[in-house]
Every structure is written in C-alpha cells, then in structure tokens.
Amino acid sequence: MRSRLLRKQPTQFERLGRIHFGQAAAEKVPDGLFQQLVRYSVFLLAALIVTHTGFTPYSLSSAAAEETVSEQWMEILMDGNKIGFAYQKVVKMPSGYKIIGKSVLKFNVMDTIQDISSSSTHFLDNDLRPKRYTYLQKMLNHRQFFEGVIEGETLHLTVRSGGNVTKKTVHFPKDAYMGDAINFILGKKELKTGQEFKYKIFIEPLLTTETITVKVGELTDFEHRGKKEKVFIVQSQFKTFEVTSFVTPDGRVLKETSPMGFESYAVEKEKAITFSGDIVPFTNLLAYSLITPNKKITEPDKLAALNLKVYGLSKKGLIPSDERQKASGGKKASDGSYTIDL
Predict the structure, then answer these.
(1) DSSP per-residue codes, 79-147
(2) Helices (H) and strands (E) in the chain, counts
(3) pLDDT(167) > 80
(4) pTM higher than 0.90, yes or no?
(5) Which helix (H) or strand (E) segment is 22 a member of?
(6) CA dist., res. 148 & res. 167, Å (int)
(7) Fewer CB in a 10 Å sphere around the end CB: N or C, the chain?
(8) Are 98 and 90 in contact (CB under 8 A)?
(9) Is 68 helix (H, G, I), strand (E, B) or coil?
(10) Burial profile 113-125: b = 16 or more Cβ within 10 angstroms, e = fewer
C-alpha cells in the first residue's frame, strides 16, 4: 500500500484519519479489522456488529397471518468488556419469512460516546430464497442505506450515502443465500456430531459472494444462567475467519467466540441493552488493526487526508466513492486480483 500525505488543519474526527470500505467504515482501518470482519463474516458489523444471533428452531404453533418464529438478544464483549448488543427476530408470513436484525456498539471516541449500529430487514420466500432487503449502517457521523430487490439472478440495488444516490444491477448467484438466513436454514436441521455444510452467502455492502463452511463438533456440557445445558460446538468459517458457536440441540446459540477477544452471550433484553460500566475507548479496537507505515509520518496529529493504493481486491467496485473518498483505476493483476487508487 503506497500513500501520499496531504495536510491541513484537521477537524476532530479527521484526526482519526477516516477511511471507509463499504460496510467496513472505520477510522484508520484500511485493510484491517472492519474490512476483514465484514468480508468474511456477514454476522459481524462493524464488527461483531453481529447479526449472527443464533440458529433458529423451525417450528410454528399456528398458521397465523404473521407470527414470531424466534427472537434473541445477545450482548457483545471485547476482551471481557461489554461493547454492544445484537438482536434478531424471525417472523413467518403467508408469503415467506421476514428476518429483522439490529446491532449496536458503543465506543468512547475522543471523550465522546459514539454508536456504531446497523439494522436490516430481509424478506425470504417459503423456500428461504431471498426476495428483497433493506440495510442501514451508521458509523460515527456517516450513514449508508442499501435497498435491494432480487429478480432471478439479478440484484437491483439502490445505495444512499452522504446525499448521493447510486443505482446498479449486480449478479446474484441462484444458489446464494443472504447471510441472515443461514442460521435459520441450519435451525431446520437435526444437528449431529461430524456434520459439515457449505453455503454461498451474499455480503450485501460488498456486493460479493463468499462460501461459509459449518462443522458440527462434539456434544458437551455448557453452563448457562446457573445451570448446565447440552451444546454442540459448531465452527463456522469464512476463508481464514472463524466463529465458534455453542448451540443447543433445539437450535439456541448460548455463546459465540471469534478472533481477537470478541465474545457474545445469549441474554435477556434488559441485560443486552444495559451498559453499566465504562465505555471502551475506540483506540482499543484500532489496536487490532494498526498498519505500520514504511516511513516516518511527521506531525501525525495534523494528518487530514491520504492517497492510497489498495492491492489484492477480489473484484472492482468493492470500495465505493462518496463525499469522503474517491476510488479510481481498477487494474487487474496476473493473479486475478485488482488494484485501485483511493
């Protein structure tokens, strides 16, 4: 990655050197935690900005016009400190299913409490095939709103960001699922040790498809809310990124762990949304994704803009242009990856 530094008197947030990569909008994380988490795990926003809230037992008690199938709250910790919560609700409708998700992370950014949040609604048919979705991400002072409609193998997408509206069509593989639906699909299965499943998932903000591999491990005891429960240890892997879930035979996720000290636990709503301790500094998160420059940067507190060359992208268009950044180029390398100027 090559950079040319431009200097002016920075604003409060410019001192953090903001760069955003689609859903992975983050301070000074040009190829680090946020981009990796979003690319390799649909279930984490912004980082464990989780919509990965558990397998969903597939059972309906009646044929009501609209009925809740499942609902779950989880609190999210980083190195043992609470940083946020995630929520997911699955609703049965005559035309299929609606999956509602929300996640919120709170950080101390330069002595100001800031939220990083996402909310989404996915509509599936009765075969769990995606029909349409909406997705809203808020990160510090930046918002992005995605609205997609799937027709056959074509996704018709509208993106609203910073006052700009972009419309495009994207290929949507016929065997791909939305990430939020995978747990629901798995929840219909009777889990057994040794099972392995592979699914293609479509990552909405990056407009790309990745394969998730799910392996069901041993059945063991797990203490939850003062009592022991039987759980399967389930590994979900996106390339090199792996999430470990502790799943009961009836499909409830009691705990999840992922790299770099992130954990989430199934809790009641009141506990999930309550922040009783100190808010974790945002710099704690950035420490996981620091990139060492190849030369000394003088007066870094005055840094307000960067020109970057980003290598190794799997396709063009992964990094958007908006009011904060401009992506250009798109040279294809011999290994099939792309390089852009940002």
Answers:
(1) TTEEEEEEEEEEEEETTEEEEEEEEEEEEEETTEEEEEEEEEEEEE-TT--EEEEEEEEEETTEEEEEE
(2) 4, 21
(3) yes
(4) no
(5) none
(6) 10
(7) N
(8) yes
(9) strand
(10) ebebbbbbbbbbe
